[in-house]
Each structure stands twice: as C-alpha cells, then as structure tokens.
Hints:
eight-stranded mixed β-sheet; 12 helices; ADP binding; ion transport; ATP_synth_asu_C_sf; ATP synthesis; transport
Amino acid sequence: VVSVGDGIARVYGLNEIQAGEMVEFASGVKGIALNLENENVGIVVFGSDTAIKEGDLVKRTGSIVDVPAGKAMLGRVVDALGVPIDGKGALSDHERRRVEVKAPGIIERKSVHEPMQTGLKAVDSLVPIGRGQRELIIGDRQTGKTAIAIDTILNQKQLNSPNQHKHNVAAREESDRLYCVYVAIGQKRSTVAQLVQIISEANALEYSILVAATASDPAPLQFLAPYSGCAMGEYFRDNGMHALIIYDDLSKQAVAYRQMSLLLRRPPGREAFPGDVFYLHSRLLERAAKRSDQTGAGSLTALPVIETQAGDVSAYIPTNVISITDGQICLETELFYRGIRPAINVGLSVSRVGSAAQLKTMKQVCGSLKLELAQYREVAAFAQFGSDLDAATQALLNRGARLTE
C-alpha cells in the first residue's frame, strides 16, 4: 500500500490485476480495483480503511466481484456483497454470479407483453407496466415513491401464494410467480428495518430478497448494491422465471459514485459527476429484459426510483434515467398534499410499452381515461374564471373530478 485515505488505497506491485477484481488487505478488509494506472492501482475499500496502513500487503483474489444468487436467497436481508445481515445464519446452497455482466442482446429478447400488476389502480390503468419493462418512479422527497414500490411487492402476494381453489392448482406455475428484489441504497438503517418489518408482517418476505447498503456503509458498497441486486434478479430471469427489482434510489448511487470517482481523481463533468455516470445507470437498467421463448422466456422488471430537488425533472441524473427507462411515474408534492395518493401527475407520467402488456378487459375500461383526464385538466383551468358553463363542459368537469378521485 502506497497511500490510503477516504476509502481509497493506492497500491503498488499488483502487476497482472484485472479491472474490477477483488483484492484482500492484510486486515481482512476487501476492496475492488477500479483505476489501473502506470505505476499504481487505485483500489476502493469495502469497509473501514482505518485498519489499513502504509506498507501493508495486499493479495489478489483472482476473481471479479461476485454475489450469491438462487432461491436460497429468498426471505433474506443481505448487504451489497451478499453477506446476510438479518442474523438468520449463513445462506444455504446457492450459486455465485458475477456482479457486472453484459445485458442480453437483441436476438435473445422479446417485446414486453405480460402485465405486471402493481395493485394501484392509478398505475395499472394509466401507466401500465409489463414484465421486462423499466419504469422510473420519480418525485421529490416525501411524495410516496417508496410506498408505490412496496405496494407493488405486497401486491405480488396473491401470485406467489399457493392457490386456495383446489381445481386451479396448476395455475401457480413458475410462469405466474413474480419474485421481488428490493435494493435500498443510502437509506437510514431505521428505514430499512421498518421496511423489513412491513414486508414480513404481510408475509411477503418469503418471495423477496432485500439488499441493503445503508447510509452508514461506505460509498463503494452503495455503488455496488444495485448491481448485486440485479445479479440476484438475473438468476430468475435466466432460468425462465420472473422477477421484479426495485432500486431505491439511484440518485444516492450516483452521489456515491461521484464521491468515488473524484477521490480516484477521475475528471469531473456536469454537476461534478464523472463522464460515465450515464453508463453507470444504463448498463444497470439494460439488464432488465424480457427473454425470448428460446432462452426460457424469463423476465426482469425494474422500477428505479429517483429523487428530484424541488420538482426539477430536467436536472442531470433525472433526464439521464428518464431517457434510459421505458416510461416514468411522476409524483408531485402538491397532489400529495391535496390528498390524491398515490400522487401521480397523469399528464407527465407515461408508459412507453405498457399498453401492449395490459389485459384486454383492462384496455376496454381504461382506453379513454387518459384523454378524458387531459380534457378535464384543460377545461378545469378555464372553469376557474367562468360560472355559466354549458352542459357538456359541466359533465366533463364532473366526470374528471370523479376520475381524479
């Protein structure tokens, strides 16, 4: 070790090291090699760097960062490296998967066509989500972004529980089930504990994996957690099963990545984020896909969450992620305080794939809803000025007000 500080160690003499390889320090702390330079290697440390001293020895592990995956993970809470933190003992039999893999190509994909019900009527009717889609949940703090995500997990209960009706036992095949992965990035430990409690009280933990990189964890772990969760979700996707992954939230991951990059002395770009912050998110979200029938027809649906500052959807990270995903659900503080919850702004929220994934019955009911709501909002603005409105306008106003409720 040449120098160490701020979670970054500069190490000399690791000649054959690969980019992204795990290394182990003498104190037992692990790290990942990110910057391979001429005279030394920049290593980010997973854990406390206080135990590392100048002149310590560093060992290569020879393996790129990997995490455990498989059905043994269901019902567990793990950290960004896949180590259990719920106190229920070690993981039973599992395979290990690389954290960074390439997304499936065009040939092995299929267009999204099965619905993924969130259980929220406003979402399922107006911005429907299909299996294999990426739908961004964006809004200011305290607008109920996490609530939408958690409700979606809890709503999969009826899909994952054994059927009550005896004659319909076969319907609960793997093709119906939807396993859930929830990645908490940079949240308070108390918040994560609360989430675990909510999910387990609803008996939803049995089909869920929680990956937690809390605010007290070092930045490299907050940066890694989404990829770890994604690798666990891909196990289901690649074995013909269906999974849903929630990243809560990616703006914290971007901040952690910015911190790492600046400490590694990579040149900063807009808002001091490094130049590859777009690639950071695109390579993550491209891994959510619907596989073709030849490759097992599995799917991974992603619901990334982004927190905006004062409703600014056109900031750097929000625009990046909006352009990567297949649509967004915009939540607004004003609607939230008016008592419209989930506080979805129907005008700004879109689903670019969803209607193909809606059920026929749902389509018939909801086909004209968006148009009617748009017309209502148009007329409602005028209605504030005038009192004598014709009957058609009045009917439109009444219907719109009821729809909004």
